[in-house]
Amino acid sequence: MKNRVKYILNYITKFWAAILFFFLSCLVILLTTVFNENYLLNILEKNNYYAGLHDVIQNQMSYQIVQAGFDEEVLENIFDGDLLRRSTKKVLDGLYNNNEINISTTSIEEQLNKNIEEYVSKRGLTIDDEEAVAKFVKEMANIYVTNVGYSNTIEKVRSTFSQLYTIVFMATIVSSILLVLTYLGTKIFFKERNIITSLLTAGILLIFFSFYIKENIDINNITIYTGLISKIISNYINNILLIAEIVGIIYLIVALLMMIIFNKIINKLLAHKKVLNIILLIIWMVVIFMFSSQNAIKSTNTSNQVTKTFITITANITGNSYTEEELNNLIIDKTLIVRKSAHFLEYLILGFLVLNVFKDYHKISKKTLLYSLLFCVLYATSDEIHQLFSLNRTCRILDVFIDSLGASLGIFIYSIFYNYLNKYLKKHKKVNIMY
């Protein structure tokens, strides 16, 4: 009875530590992204926010200029990208430091008054109503303030934002302390380490929640305030989700490396190797099924996002830079290649996992290889048929062919690796771990 209680408490402690670690990971990601002013400023720069904001303000001012009977030349040099950067920085400083936000428009008003005077002087006109001109200049300055300050929205939410930051920061401190105490308690009372379980759980949950949010929220079509702001927020959310996925993958890799280091855990897994291999195969088949369940729009958006990530990484490595239009054209050109490569890679992994299961029940031979390939081809065919039931998706024989090639390569790689490793083990008189 005592051992059973200890076992239950040990299990509860592991579960608690895993959830705490996941929660702490989410909090740290929030602190380094949402509550990091420099991160947001970097996002604005990368998405050409200031050029877009300049065009928005210019267009609104141009409309007022026409209504007032002036030509657009009075708008020349009244503001530029550098002024927009300084103004935006001031707004964000107010948000992140909970300070009152006051956007200066002195330089805009002075330059606009100067332009109006030159405009009137060139045409031999006189200003009869100085008060009307002053009112007009103030209206133009208000257009600038409204767009830079998001209609005073930032000023209204800065106090709440500051409170949220305090809550998240304190929650991070408390979670860290609780996690350390939990790990120490487990080590002292149960003589076990929870870190591997925590890393695996947190990694899987981070990847799952990122995927779930992308599947259930049309992030790329979010509409908030203006089209420009909506675009920035969409990219902002996508970047945060990408960070969550990368962190999740790192956790899984570190956990697997630690599992290899701690042979005791590996031995436990190997004791149930056949079941584990089947579970891995089923998980990967479900992943393929979920991708095929996406409708055409979501599937295209996913492919575009992956393509954009590859192009961005390549550009950073090579030192290239692209305008928004050039980037969009590259995405259109390369997306098809990325989609077909994804098909190939999906089934390469599937072929690897299928043969990994089949070899547990029959020695690898031509017949085993053939059965493995047949399994993959049948699944690829069923997967393409399944796509007919997803909105605006199609069934293509070419994709079945690409999938089959990928599976063939995966099966070939596994068989070569399997045979080579067994020969090596026999030569050095070591235990054959493949059986």
Largest sheet: none
Distance between the termini: 37 Å
Which bin fits the share of residues in helices? over 70%
Number of strands: 0
Kindly state the mean pLDDT as a whole number? Answer: 80
Structural shape: elongated
The value of Rg in angstroms is 30 Å
**How do the SSEs run, as a string of H and E?**
HHHHHHHHHHHHHHH
Number of helices: 15
Q: What is the structural class?
A: mainly alpha
What fraction of the residues are assigned to beta strands by DSSP? under 5%
Contiguous runs where pLDDT drops below 50 for at least 5 residues = 430-435
Q: So what's the oligomer here?
A: single chain
Describe the overall structure:
- With about 425 residues, the protein is mostly helical.
- Among the domains are: about 40-150, no CATH class; about 270-435, no CATH class.
- It contains 15 helices and no strands.
- The longest helix has about 35 residues, at about 155-190.
- The radius of gyration is 30 Å and the shape is elongated.
Give a concise summary.
This protein is mainly α and 435 residues long. It has helices at 2-32, 37-46, 49-68, 81-97, 106-122, 130-148, 153-189, 195-216, 227-261, 263-271, 273-293, 296-318, 324-358, 366-387, 397-427.
Distinctive features:
single chain; 435 residues; mainly alpha; elongated; disordered C terminus
List the topology elements.
Layout (H helix, E strand, L loop, with lengths): L1 H31 L4 H10 L2 H20 L12 H17 L8 H17 L7 H19 L4 H37 L5 H22 L10 H35 L1 H9 L1 H21 L2 H23 L5 H35 L7 H22 L9 H31 L8
